[in-house]
Amino acid sequence: MRRALVLAAAAALGAPAAALASVQQVLLPGPTPYPTPSPPLVTVAAPPTATLPFRIHASSDQHVVAGVDPDGRVVSLRALHRLLLSGTGDYLIVVSAPVLDVSPGPGSESQPGLRRGQILWAGFSSKKKLLSADATLRPGPAAPFLPMRLEAHLDGDRYTLTVTNATLTSELSFAGAASPAELARLLDLTRRDSLSGGKLTSAYVSIDGLVTARGERAQIAAPLRVEGKLRFPSAPTSVSGGTVHGRTVTFSLLLGDGRPLSRRVEVRGVRTEPLLHVEARPTVLVRSLVPPGARRWSDAVRRRPLSAAALLKRLLDARMQLVRSDQYQSFLSNPDSTGRNRTVYVYETAVPSVRRTVAGPGQGSGGSGGPLVALLALGGSVLGLGAALVAWANN
Amino acid sequence: MRRLAIFLAGLALLAAGCGKSSGSENVGELVIAVDVPVTGSPYVAQTIRQGVELAASNLNGGGGVRVGNKSYRLKVKLYDNHLSARRAVQDTRRALDAGAAAIVTDGTGVDATWELARRDGVSVDIAYDGGTGLVDAETRPNVFRIAPTNHGIAFRYAEYLVPKKVKVGLLSDDSAYGREGAADVGRAFSENPEAVALKLTLPAGQTDVTPQILRARRSGATALLVWGQAPTIAAVLSAARSIGWQVPVYAPPTGVDPFIRQQLADHPEWVDGLTFASGRMTAEVGTGPFTSFESQYESAYGADLVGVKTAAGEPVVQPPEFAMYSYDFVHVLVAAVTRATSVDPEKVTEALNQVTTQGANGDERGFNQHSHEGVVDDDVYFARFHDMTFQPVRDDPLSATLPPIQQTRGG
Question: Nearest-CA distance from A105 to chain B in Å?
Fold first, then answer.
């Protein structure tokens, strides 16, 4: 009898414990860590100890200008990095970047310092201070961390520009049994964070039982809002993927958030590459977080049953995309890890496109400069051959 | 037994010989030349020299500077430039002949000496003179400065005084220091001409400037900003107070020179209210680092007594502000040697652009490719005298954050 009582007591104590032990609080992605080390850009140079006391906060606005050649390859890179400090105290800020040169940007209240791989700021902030740096970056190491890739082709009278979201990465994710009601609440929270444009709020999800790795790695990309303008010397005849306004073609795209990551603008009736100006902004998730048939996810799950596994996958993917979007809001680092960041990426034609004019109807394939170019090439070859002969004779 | 003794003696000699040989191969000297006006401005000369010597002594005490498998002991060589550019050129030549890795100077003659030093790749560090144009990272890549700049002080004064709605009389003496400062002050106030009552040049070294001060009063000036040597500031205070004009007087870093207090020791109330601008001695981290440096300095050299007392009869001491700058430069230089992994002056000078160290007051000290100024303009603070000692003012955001420094040592 005594043994039975002991067993019964143990069972009574153990039952809720076992039930609790099977439920785990699992941290959801966001606001950090970021899935890749860059952006923000980093360099191998050892930074001095940077100081930004807790009394000082910093928000950053960045304007990154990538100069592209006629094929869409990045050939130059410049960043206007504006840090707005608020608070009173000393600061020493080290912005790590493959920087070639730096000068004060418009309105800067201090002078940026330059070291190998570093932009330096040091001084005293009295309530507010604007630090603005106009930095020329080495495109080689920095361009791979731009969020968008352009590929342009001029073929006959057809010009195509392919715009690709280059933020795609794969991430490990997890699966498990969670309550649809809780997942709906978390989706609503995530949606609110997303629509506010701020950083994600940290959140946990309760998983009942085992937490397992999802079978396939999640494919995550930051949603990009892209606005472009192509200015041709003469009016195109037609365009797909954009709108013609006289000699200008404009387009507006969303890459990601449930839309394709790559889009093409095709312009017909042109003979020359355009002057290109394309702006990309990491943006919020809208489509992926719209609740089906209701104003809120919490209402949607009450109206009809939704798969908990699908809700969890949607929640995790959405949060990872928002983290990725937040990562690209800071091409150059902000010393305040909680500070607000905004970056606009501008792609512009680096050199006016005049060299690749294609032949018009009735002309040779060499274009108008063909004979002259051929003559110069021939002359160059003869001179080169002569120099080689002289060198050989002297040896 | 005798054979064993001879064997052991031989072994000992061999061991000693080996040790000496190995030691001499692995220990070198890193010469730092200090070229200061020992006979022209002894206070400035002494404080700069002692700052360098203290840093060298500390570093040597820790084994010197290690470069690869060799240690270098810092050796300080003192030269007296007599406040003369010609003498500074001679000193620089001698210092270069002596193999100096760097030259620390008050700033005398740098316009003439920097090119000489550059030919040998040697860096020149200015630890006192804030003259604009002395330092330019592009055109004078081997010249560095750890001291507040005239430019920074002038602009901080404009920032400080213009909102007070005072009419400033801009006075300067005709020394090189005064002329350079006047130019910077003129630029700083150029956007607020309404704040300037008059600009006046005073003869340096003249002890009675009463006519000029009367003129300044007639111009409607309600404040005087006097950019000049310490005797000029003392003369202005003396003249203004003698005629009963209690106009607030503002000064550059020369305002803290002990000479002024010594000169006006009979009228300590004339010094009261004198405000000067300089580089802050304490950082945001508090007084700890500076106090620690100051006590090291005083242990080595004793306190720099000003030669006056407070009303309570306590002797007043001068905090080692400019010693701190020369001390910091030696540490930055050593960081550059370590970074360059070489004592080749050219490589060390190049590496000076890439290093930061913590200064004696807790502030970061370093240079970069665009700026060879080790004291940023934001670090300029204002302090006001009362009872022969000074305290940071409370009506300037930076100064208000700074704690006062103890300047008496008991009677």
Answer: 15
